[in-house]
Amino acid sequence: VILAAGEGTRMKSTRAKVLHEISGRSLLGHVLHAVSSLNPIETRVVVGASKDDVIAHLSSIAPHARSVFQEVRGGTGHAVKLALQDYSSDGVVMVCAGDTPLLTGATLTKLLAAHSSAQASATVLTAELPDPSGYGRVIRNPDGSLSKIVEEKDATEQEKKTLEINSGVYIFELASLRSALTKLSANNAQKEEYLTDVIAILKNDGKKVSAFLADDYTEIWGINDRAQLSTCSFIMNARICDALMKSGVTIVDPMTTWVDLSAEIAVDVRLEPGTTVKGVSKIGASAVIGPRTTLIDCDVATGAHIFESHCESSRIGPHSIVGPYSHLRNGTVLTGNAKVGSFVEIKNSTIGDGSKVPHLSYVGDATIGSETNIGAATVIVNYDGVEKHATVIGDHVRIGSDSMLVAPVTIGDGAYTAAGSVITEDVPPGALGIGRAK
Ligand code: UD1
Ligand code: MG
Fold this sequence. Notes:
elongated; 7-stranded mixed beta sheet; 9-stranded parallel beta sheet; binds uridine-diphosphate-N-acetylglucosamine; alpha/beta; 8 helices; about 450 residues
């Protein structure tokens, strides 16, 4: 059960808190990912604030998960009651929150193992924080066993000094939990039914409750505001960069290199400072990316070199060179050994093997063959103000500098255009096209 009905007021956002993203994945997506490593029979998500958006997101990323609507915020205990309303099987349930993206499947697996070996009715994942403020405190008996959880707003000065806090992640025996939930009251500072009170209730019923201390306290960090969003992004990104470096990728400066979880980066790739790799991007072996380059949903082949550039939904073939200051837009394909140079924008175009667009050009809706050179300041005039038109340029073509190729137009293999020409008619193979103003 993932609790995600909260308002997220402190985010000051029009978007639901759990839909904010870290490393290209929503906060809720991170939690679902961690939870999936337990192979749950069923996953339920309690939704409330911005429920339509959260439900739509859920159906796209985790269609197997079921949403449960909590109309009024009655507290974490109330939320769990709702989630289990029509679930009558026995076994165990894990409860966590939808805003703790750093939680790992490995820790959840250890928590479940600790719960089983303790044969407890409930096991709470706890952590020792340098600054526990804001969290529920874990109160232990003199013998070290778990006594209860006290919310900060209800805690005594003495209890507030406890550094061990409740992560908000628990494993419960379903039968015990069901009976404890009926005994919850909202007689507390927040006038809510606290799930945390279940611990003391179980204890009073003579049931065994236990606590499992997380190795890494950063895993339990929840996100309430934008500053915490940034802190958690930073930690997640450091994890991603660490894993990449262990797998054989050179990252010159992990502090300024941001890589989404969905990126695939091969060995001996070198990421230079200021590089961002977003979306479903793939980078082949020995490619060099950066400095100061952004790739979004790009497929970069082995040995390519892209620097000081912005590339989106593009395919960059083997050993191609892009940059500095190139802008590859959606649908750009460099088949291989191509060169795209400074201040060049390309959209929805294929540049054949060994062809070059080295300086100050716009190429849109064009197909360019192999070993062709596009002279400096060439513009493919693809737009007549209403519609876009296609341009075809053959192999071994030499387009003179400052040519305007007015689409639709075809330039045959081995043809030339004279510098400064406005080409409005097809140029046959091997011919010279010239069209200059007097
Ligand atoms: C809760 C715990 C606290 C723990 C902390 C860890 C309780 C009473 N307290 O406090 O001991 O240290 O988490 O982060 O459980 N939610 C619902 N419906 C509700 C209320 C909350 O779905 O009616 C969801 C929230 O969206 C959130 C989660 O439950 O994802 C926790 O609620 P929140 O209000 O953040 O509780 P905390 O005060 O942080
Ligand atoms: Mg919280």
